[in-house]
Amino acid sequence: xxxxxxxELDEALLDDARYVLGTTGIRDTVEGxxxxxxxxxxxxxxxxxxxxxxxVDRSVAVLRKSRPTR
Length: 70
Known about the structure:
The chain is mainly alpha-helical. It contains three helices and no strands. The protein has helices at about 10-20, 25-50, 60-65. The longest helix is centred in the middle third of the chain and has 27 residues, at about 25-50. The radius of gyration is 20 Å and the shape is elongated.
């Protein structure tokens, strides 16, 4: 679903984002930036889960399954 809108953008910031993301169009750049924000947030949530152990099964059985047999 697309949402049509009209916004004012900082041209210098847009150019910087284009360079970083490797995009050319405004829409590609804005959508790419939004995707990166969502990915960063999800990574931070995952990092917090790993750091605290919340929702992470560290049982010996799981560890054995995740390691290759020799």
